[in-house]
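ARCHIVE CARD
SHELF: 3
SLOT: left
DATA:
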Amino acid sequence: MPAQPASLERETVHSLLADRTREYLLCHLSTVDRTTVHDAAERLAAWSWEAAELATRERDRITVQLVHNHLPRLAEYDVIVYDRSSDVVTTGPNFADLEPYVEPIEPPRV
């Protein structure tokens, strides 16, 4: 895989922010710097749903999306660092390129 540039191009920033799940994940990371897949999925589901029963279903769906789509894509551009063995997600070297475009969202009650 070719090395990523030191900073992200404008088109890449727009592409990465175009998905609501990725945007919410980045908003969450802007307030905590470190999370787990489970915690991130639970918080994203709580932002999306009110009822606990729906939130559980939504959390499972979001977990699959995070692991198979969003986390690998963000890691490819060094926006996050994703350790599959521990399920820990941290901000990466290019996170600062996206941070001006993500606003912290009021944390849901989990």
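SLOT: right
DATA:
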Amino acid sequence: MQVFAINPLTKEINTVEIADTKEALQELIGFSTIDSDEIDDNGDRLFFDEECFIRQQGNVGRFKVDSLAPVAGIGVIVNCKDGKTFQSALINAQELLKRVTYL
């Protein structure tokens, strides 16, 4: 599946091809403790390290999508309507770029 990886340190959004599994998301994010927030009504979600602010990591960068709470480290946009099945994000890169703010 194609997902969007948001890297706040480099301020880049990259299209990445990964397997449609939770383990693939965890590997891309870099941690096994992941959580998500809905970014729109079509099932696209922002997946991120659930403990991103507890870890005391230096120099990872922060960002937010729209008015969601800020996230530290890598975030991944994936379509996941039922919370179990992952598929390619429906949002396009240009639209996502307009909605991401680096902090």
